[in-house]
Amino acid sequence: MKQAKKNKKPMPLAGQIFIALVLAIIVGLLIQPYAKFASTYITPFGTIFLNLIKFIVGPIVLFSIMAGVVSMKDIKKVGAIGGTTLIYYLCTTAFATAIGLFLANSFQKYFPVLSVSNLSYKAGDKVSAMDTLVNVFPSNFLAPLYEANMLQVIVMALILGFAIILVGKKAEPAVRAVDVCNNVFMKAMEMILKLSPIGVFCLLCPVIAENGAKILGSLAMVLLVAYIGYIAHALIVYSLAVRTLGGMNPVKFFKGMLPAILFAFSSASSVGTLPLNMECTEKLGVPKEVSSFVLPLGATINMDGTAIYQGVCSVFIAACYGIHLTFPQMITIVVTATLASIGTAGVPGSGMVMLAMVLQSVGLPVDGIALVAGIDRIFDMGRTTVNITGDASCSVIVSHLLRNKIASWGKTQATAVAETSEELDTMANEKASSMEEALGDVQGVSAADLEVHTSSENEDTEGEKK
Ligand code: ASP
After folding, report:
1. Is the Cβ–Cβ distance between 394 and 88 less than 8 Å?
2. Where does 150-269 have alpha helices with state H?
3. Which of 189, 224, 419, 451 is deepest in the core (most CB within 10 A)?
4. How far, in Å, is the centroid of ligand 1 from the Cα of 306?
5. In percent, how much of the chain has pLDDT > 70?
6. Best substitution site from 60, 384, 388 to test ligand 1's pocket, by max atoms within 8 Å of Cβ?
């Protein structure tokens, strides 16, 4: 009997979170008359969970990107992965904003006419594009972590990672230290994530209790448009990208991503979903050295779902105020939403804060954010799901393209050796034939080497999972 109890596997985290989500909706609807009680006594437990996530975000991003850079050892490889990743991230985000704008414009006449008096929303100071650029670079070693300025943490991680590679052999203790710190913080993250079913329930239940079906009803249309955008972007853009650039069947991709998708939907945090996203992509065959670089970077700077949301909400807010957006204004929104999504932290609610920057860029009333603030969580669940799926699709694509690159590097070496062997052939036939034999050996060894490397990586992952 005891043995049977011992053998019983605990329910997977994604299942627990799903149950918490359903319970939060049911309980939230039931305790609607006690919404104040819910926000006073249930929300704080959700806030504790969020605080723990915020606490771990900085070190996770710092060490996972450093470990990712250092593990590649070769600056050329970092450049290749980083370049492809950035281009993919920026293009898909700009495209996502355009989808959001297009859909919102198409559905504009169905948006409810809302009373826009009594709205109040305080935005931060207006930040110019040049200030945004300058603020990417840290002026202090500790401030980026202290202020949780994720872009600065990324820059710091990249500089330090490159420095470790360039110092070379002497920096080996630093390589080990980064690896150890990365493992320790990942473990801490895992511990915190075990609390996520409780966190999800405590965050969601008061929101449902407070807003009920009423708020959902009046804003259903704008929500629907955003969700159509999320689904269209995921199904069209990612499916095509994964199929054409990543060489993977989209069905296999989405199936493999399901646990992370469910988690992102429930937690509304890209950073919180990071460990699960890494696990899912690695199971899909993405090498650890790619996922540990592409995914943390994506969780911090790639926000396609957020960009769709910002496009949709800009048009929605403009419509509520009776403002018609011009084409140049739309272009400005695409550019600012792409930049804003880079600056958006992968935690719940940050996309709404960045919406202020987008609205300001085209002179729309920032107060309009109050219109959508009440249901931001529901927008956020969908946009986070798209955000992390975009990161994962990039890791699949980069690992596919990288494989070709590694193969082409191998071929370049082989061609160089072959040319040398031809020259030698004219000098001495005997030596030439032995060179060709050696060439065959070299090719054989490099292919085998690659295989050993990959399988040992897999063993590592397996070992860690065990
Ligand atoms: N919650 C989103 C994320 O973590 C960011 C946002 O608020 O848009 O990806």
Report:
1. yes
2. 150-167, 172-193, 196-218, 220-232, 239-244, 250-267
3. 189
4. 6
5. 75
6. 384
Burial level of 412, CB count in 10 A (0-12/13-18/19+)? exposed
Instruction: Out of 103-107, 322-326, 387-391, 450-454, pick the least confident.
Output: 450-454
**pLDDT tens for each residue of 211-230:** 676 555 657 888 999 999 99
Q: What pLDDT, on a 0 to 100 scale, did the predictor assign at position 234?
A: 94
Amino acid (one-letter) located at 450: L
Chain-centroid distance of CA 421 in Å reads 48
Given a cut of 50, whether residue 426 has pLDDT beyond it is no
Is the confidence at residue 435, as pLDDT, over 50? no
- Name the residue among 419, 78, 395, 142 with its Cα closest to residue 256: 395
Tally of CA atoms within 13 A in the half-sphere of 161 that contains its CB: 29
Q: Measured between alpha carbons, how far is 258 from 241 in angstroms, rounded to an integer?
A: 18
**Whether residue 436 has pLDDT greater than 60:** no
Q: What is the 271 CA–ligand 1 centroid distance (Å)? A: 9
The owner of tokens 């596919």 is 400
Choosing from 276, 383, 391 the residue with most ligand 1 atoms within 8 A of its CB, the one to mutate for a pocket test is 383
The secondary structure of 23-54, three-state, reads HHHHHHHHCHHHHHHHHHHCHHHHHHHHHHHH
CA of 68 to the centre of ligand 1 (A): 23
Closest atom of ligand 1 relative to the 306 alpha carbon: 8
Burial of 102 (0-12, 13-18, 19+ CB in 10 A): middle
Helix (H, G, I), strand (E, B) or coil at 141: coil
pLDDT tens per residue, range 372-419: 776 778 899 999 999 999 999 999 999 888 776 645 544 543 343 333
CA of 463 to the centre of ligand 1 (A): 32
Burial label for 176, CB within 10 Å (0-12, 13-18, 19+), is exposed
Residue 188: pLDDT band by 50, 70, 90 thresholds? confident
pLDDT of residue 387: 95
Ligand 1: lining residues by beta carbon, under 6 Å: 268-270, 303, 306, 344, 346-351, 380, 383-384, 387
